[in-house]
């Protein structure tokens, strides 16, 4: 098994564990941050270690540190996507976004800095197929596509559900795992989805959770909506039968639930399981299957390459073995 190494120039391993997003490398080697990457790293360090310039919970994971092997932020390395495979091979590293807080899918251990989970396993398989090293970057729902569009990342997993709208903007592999939407609550009087009528629910930005929950409540007859149009639905302005509050990441949404600012938190059940405790529970109904796919820049030659790797893993049974090894169940 290849070892993970911290590759943050100028920071000790203990300092790296405290940064908002560390990137990792499989295999040995020296750090090769470009000039813009070094500037981004210096900015990240300054923001992290300055007195109280920015609260840790307000820092968007993955947005401050350029992974080794990239050429910096907004440089257009994913524009004109015809030669991404050759570019990655010449660079010698593929930069992959994964979740960092969901055990079994994408998890970064704060003490050791090591990544684990199905997304990490798949990232390693893709790197092996390309014949390069791999760098993992922690992403969340707000940052994953932004970093992909900027060219900081070559591809993204990050429990990203395949939807028709997203397929217009990015390419996706076939699903590597399927989850369902659910709702986390801590009020004993909320026992089912229908009890959310008239309530405010937390969701994270750039997810389809609010839309899925609204449609499910309409299907159950728990709320009545006039002239519903999924194409124009916006969580931040929706007020018919249920309302929503958007947060930049799952940690902020869960904290809002703990402060009773909202009555529930809707997301993928795998993400919500992170926040279960003696007081909080998942409502029994799941809904809106969430097929997770690997996102790549639209029209890139990397897209069919990644899709082929996933398909081969599925056809050989290796994908199922990886899922079972992580203690996950296919939905």
**Quick one: how many beta strands?**
16
Number of domains: 2
Outline the low-pLDDT stretches. 1-77
**CATH class annotation of the largest domain:** Alpha Beta
Please compute the radius of gyration using only Cα atoms: 20 Å
Helix-strand makeup class: alpha/beta
Distance between the termini: 29 Å
Secondary-structure element string = EHEHHEEEEHEHEHEEEHEHEHEEEHH
Chain-averaged pLDDT: 80
How many alpha or pi helices? 11
CATH topology of the largest domain, by name, is: D-Maltodextrin-Binding Protein, domain 2
Second CATH tier, the architecture of the largest domain: 3-Layer(aba) Sandwich
Characterize the main sheet: 6 strands, mixed
What's the name of the CATH homologous superfamily of the largest domain? Periplasmic binding protein-like II
The percent range for strand residues is 15-25%
Apparent shape: globular
Percent of residues in helices comes to 25-40%
Task: Produce the secondary structure layout.
Layout: E1 4-6, H1 13-18, E2 23-26, H2 35-49, H3 84-91, E3 93-98, E4 101-102, E5 106-108, E6 115-116, H4 118-130, E7 133-138, H5 144-150, E8 155-156, H6 164-167, E9 170-172, E10 177-185, E11 200-204, H7 209-220, E12 243-247, H8 250-258, E13 264-268, H9 269-272, E14 281-282, E15 287-292, E16 295-297, H10 302-316, H11 318-325
């Amino acid at each position: 098994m290849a070892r993970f190494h911290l590759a943050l120039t100028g920071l000790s391993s203990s300092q790296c564990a405290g940064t908002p997003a560390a990137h990792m490398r499989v295999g040995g080697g020296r750090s090769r941050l470009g000039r813009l990457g070094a500037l981004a790293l210096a900015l990240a360090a300054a923001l992290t270690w300055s007195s109280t310039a920015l609260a840790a919970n307000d820092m968007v994971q993955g947005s401050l540190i350029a992974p080794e092997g990239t050429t910096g932020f907004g440089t257009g390395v994913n524009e004109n996507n015809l030669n991404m495979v050759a570019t990655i091979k010449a660079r010698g590293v593929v930069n992959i976004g994964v979740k960092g807080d969901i055990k079994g899918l994408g998890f970064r251990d704060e003490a050791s800095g090591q990544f684990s989970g199905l997304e990490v396993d798949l990232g390693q398989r893709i790197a092996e197929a390309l014949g390069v090293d791999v760098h993992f970057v922690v992403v969340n729902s707000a940052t994953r596509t932004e970093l992909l569009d900027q060219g900081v990342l070559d591809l993204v997993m990050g429990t990203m559900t395949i939807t028709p709208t997203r397929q217009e903007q990015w390419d996706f592999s076939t699903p590597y795992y399927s989850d369902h939407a659910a709702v986390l609550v801590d009020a004993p009087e909320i026992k089912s989805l229908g009890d959310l009528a008239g309530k405010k629910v937390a969701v994270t930005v750039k997810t389809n959770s609010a839309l899925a929950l609204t449609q499910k409540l309409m299907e159950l007859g728990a709320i009545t909506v006039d002239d519903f149009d999924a194409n124009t639905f916006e969580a931040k302005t929706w007020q018919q039968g249920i309302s929503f509050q958007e947060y930049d990441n799952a940690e902020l949404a869960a904290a809002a639930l703990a402060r009773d600012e909202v009555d529930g938190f809707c997301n993928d059940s795998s993400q919500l399981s992170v926040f279960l405790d003696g007081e909080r529970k998942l409502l029994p109904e799941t809904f809106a299957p969430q097929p997770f796919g690997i996102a790549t820049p639209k029209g890139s030659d990397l897209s069919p390459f990644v899709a082929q790797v996933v398909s081969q893993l599925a056809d050989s049974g290796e994908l199922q073995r990886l899922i079972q090894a992580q203690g996950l169940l296919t939905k």
